[in-house]
């Protein structure tokens, strides 16, 4: 009996160490428990991932966890990000030098304002970011953004957004144009 108790204690001790590194053990929060709690939440809130027994494991990647000790008790809180109803396409911006017609040794390109642009599928909202630190990939090519404030299409002033949404024959003033001279 004491060996069994020691094994259980060792398991929980290992789980607490994992919690400190941000990893949730199935002993602390089993997939069945998580699924049951998520079922309760989905009646009131929009969850970031479609809820099914197959998808419940993806939630372990996006759970925000905090732990602390109070009154000699280990308290663990789990947070699931709630989402808005929009899905966004993620674009990474790359400057593409284009040769001048009059002088093929001179190239011009538009300097991106931000490295990434998120554009809603309906193209009504967007958000611009320099890195993906506020996003987490929960399955390949599917990201969840945390605390991102989106702008409506009518608010656009950024160069890239104007180029995406406006039909134009001239480069907008908000664009930063850079020139390169190629050595032959």
TrEMBL record:
This is Baculovirus F protein. It comes from the Eukaryota.
């Amino acid at each position: 009996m004491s060996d069994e108790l020691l094994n259980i204690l060792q398991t929980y001790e290992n789980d607490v160490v994992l919690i400190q590194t941000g990893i949730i053990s199935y002993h602390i929060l089993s997939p069945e428990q998580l699924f049951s709690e998520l079922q309760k939440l989905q009646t009131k809130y929009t969850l970031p991932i479609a809820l099914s027994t197959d998808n419940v494991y993806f939630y372990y990647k996006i759970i925000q966890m905090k732990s602390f000790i109070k009154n000699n008790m280990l308290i663990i809180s789990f947070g699931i990000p709630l989402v808005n109803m929009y899905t966004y396409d993620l674009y990474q911006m790359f400057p593409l030098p284009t040769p001048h017609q009059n002088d093929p040794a001179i190239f011009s390109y538009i300097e991106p304002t931000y490295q990434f642009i998120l554009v809603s599928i309906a193209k009504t909202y967007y958000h611009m970011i320099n890195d993906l630190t506020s996003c987490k990939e929960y399955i390949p090519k599917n990201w969840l953004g945390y605390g991102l404030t989106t702008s409506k299409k009518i608010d656009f002033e950024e160069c890239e957004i104007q180029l995406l949404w406006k039909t134009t024959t001239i480069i907008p003033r908000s664009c930063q144009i850079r020139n390169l001279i190629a050595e032959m």
